Amino acid sequence: xxxxxxxxxxxxxxxxxxxxxxxxxxxxxxxxxxxxxxxxxxxxxxxxxxxxxxxxxxxxxxxxxxxxxxxxxxxxxxxxxxxxxxxxxxxxxxxxxxxxxxxxxxxxxxxxxxxxxxxxxxxxxxxxxxxxxxxxxxxxxxxxxxxxxxxxxxxxxxxxxxxxxxxxxxxxxxxxxxxxxxxxxxxxxxxxxxxxxxxxxxxxxxxxxxxxxxxxxxxxxxxxxxxxxxxxxxxxxxxxxxxxxxxxxxxxxxxxxxxxxxxxxxxxxxxxxxxxxxxxxxxxxxxxxxxxxxxxxxxxxxxxxxxxxxxxxxxxxxxxxxxxxxxxxxxxxxxxxxxxxxxxxxxxxxxxxxxxxxxxxxxxxxxxxxxxxxxxxxxxxxxxxxxxxxxxxxxxxxxxxxxxxxxxxxxxxxxxxxxxxxxxxxxxxxxxxxxxxxxxxxxxxxxxxxxxxxxxxxxxxxxxxxxxxxxxxxxxxxxxxxxxxxxxxxxxxxxxxxxxxxxxxxxxxxxxxxxxxxx
Length: 519
Hints:
Layout: H1 7-15, H2 21-40, H3 44-48, E1 79-83, H4 87-98, E2 102-106, H5 110-113, E3 122-124, H6 126-132, E4 135-138, H7 152-155, E5 159-162, H8 176-183, E6 188-191, H9 198-203, E7 211-214, H10 219-231, E8 235-238, H11 245-250, H12 260-289, H13 300-331, H14 340-347, H15 349-369, H16 374-390, H17 397-423, H18 426-429, H19 434-460, H20 477-481, H21 483-495, H22 498-508
Helix pairs in contact: 1-2, 12-13, 13-15, 13-19, 13-21, 15-17, 17-19
């Protein structure tokens, strides 16, 4: 009933006609009028502060809190203190005010910094903030913690939320939160909000990470901070005791930790295939025929290398699944732990697949740019002159069909890879159930590997059996790329045989060899 346009299809489905439409229309209008009366009265979330639906709206508009009644703190709302006047403190105060909290900001120079904060937030001296609040966000750098030692008596019994980060991983022997707890042993220190940027606080959880990692030795303090996290529109993640603060502080400093191995793998494959193609396409004609083919290095050699990397990387996504099936068949159980290298391989399949899609996309762009090169135009004109002189027909039926099929398979493979890449995004995968996600990533992924294999085979055609294609006795590059994918495809087909498929299903359902059923 929130959308009146949805009433008409419902009326059609109920009556299969319009003879009793007026009856249901009157009921719908009564319901809409009741709904409008409910919406005219203030809701509980509106009385408490910012409505829940508005929690994800960005705060970059710099609304005037005094002119917006919903943004002003409600009477009886909890008072939160902030020590510090930097960018993070300003963004945090804005989010707290818009979430219905009363905010006190402690600064060494309140008059100068008051204009930087929302008008609903009270900017005063640090001592006043400590006296009037029980939960205080410490938004200052580690080296400035000692400036708060003069307030140690007033801070006794308070909850201090440390939001600081280091500049390097494991820069100090102890975490910032543990150092703060050592300076103020009478306080309860909670580590949190250090993985949330000032931009995320202003733009809303939809435009940034929603998870807030917190840890503390006091459960009540963690619960209190978790409630604040919820009201700000984020999701608290309990990481345990305060000794976990070191790990939490290292999280924002890590640069794509899950991508390190896949990226090095892709770079290693690119270097190997590029060197191999350089020897065949550039070095061989220069040594044998004294032809200068070095102009091929920036585009043509790269374009020959990219599909090799994409094809092999795609096969490496599904190879660990084959090895895991062999491991389970050999041990006749699913409860035996995989080796560490296989476990790490299985965890990096998403990154390997996305890098495969990236290389395939670059290959498509490079292929479209090949006719634009000046060298290609010169060669095309040269071939045209030769055809005119010989008065021969340049049409080769076999090559025409090979090229048409080869390009068609390539487009289909790139389309399937695009589907795999899109569904691996969290925003898309979260909207799919497990069967849908498994069908796309497993079944359609295997189809993408088969189509890529057909694309490679039609590209090579009969050149694998042409002795002129073996430069320095080196086989064509596409023959090397076929090794791993063909092994994966044959193994997958073998495991889909009824006898093997039944045994694998039994093992994955909990069956073990030598296990006797207890009656």
